[in-house]
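ESCALATION

Customer reports they have been waiting on this structure for their group meeting. Please prioritize. Original submission:
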Amino acid sequence: MAEGLSRRRIAGTPQTDNEETSNGTSTPAPSLTQNAPDINNKKSDKPPLLTLMEETLLLGLKDQEGYLSFWNDSLSYVLRGCMLMELAFRRRIRIAKDAFTGMTSIGDRPVEVISTRPTGEVLLDEALRTIKGSETMRGVSSWMDLLSGETWNIAKAGYQLKQVRERLAKGLVDKGVLRTEKRNFLFFDMATHPVQDPRAKDEVIVRLLDTLNLPRSAAQPTRAATRNPGTASPASYGNPHYSVGQGIGGQAGKLKMAAVANSRFYKNEEEAKFALLRRVCLVAAACAGSVLENPLTHMDMETRDRAVSRAEELMDVYGRWPFKKESAVYSPDIDSGEAGDLMVLEVVTAVISVMRKMDKLI
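Update from on-call: job pushed to the front of the queue and completed.
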């Protein structure tokens, strides 16, 4: 209901050493280095203004019409996977360890809650309570099934998170990214959410293009350059020729991090601990959720095919555990090697591995 959709963000809340865990023990903050002065160089765990769910929704949303494709059945399933990745990034869940962990696929390994501290995001907190309240420990693939309602077991219908797309859209309205309008669809009226502030979607698209190794000048070429600060020069907007390999990774295709200039929604992104991995997750969610081609429609067919191939390659590299480090697109910056980060990487890998098999699941 609309009355229950107000969102309160807990910004900059530091993690405490006595944070609640699933087994009642405290989780100490990981030590970064042996030298005290290097503590100042610690990357931040503070999440960006937009969640992975909101980013994926924006990519699928029609700017002026304000609604998603009616034929996209996979997006709802993918959004639940994004929730699990967000909970992992915020260190609320992890893959449980037991004697049989190594004998099962990464997507089927049980997930456990390690902290019930509120995230400040209503949907994330609701998903966290649902996982915590379950009497049975389940894997990522099972939770994506249950939270999306993709199950034939009526007894498990209570696990489903309902009206996720609408609630995410209203959350973006609260953040000033979208606005609410009413649109008539022949026999009924429906609330739509056109883009109010295009900077948010522009920044998401630029980060997507960076990861796909496409030039930033390919970001929304029909918009005025003044509405895309830091994404492209005015001269580049008349150039229709784009190619995978012309991005920040160059012809080698290496996965690299470059912050968006004058960013409003991703301030100091290069200082965030999992910034590059978040971009990989965005590409994986967009590809699995069938919204990847939306920002690529103005490109030629060959470029789009190569972009999709790179997205699938990224999912293949980061959707298996351990990562496929021999691949040309693997970046050592993904894994910081810090204590405690392993539990984040495992959950993210598990979700991406399930997204790789979407055609078989849905």
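Sent to customer with the following note: The beta strands are 93-95, 111-113, 181-185, 188-192.
Escalation resolved.
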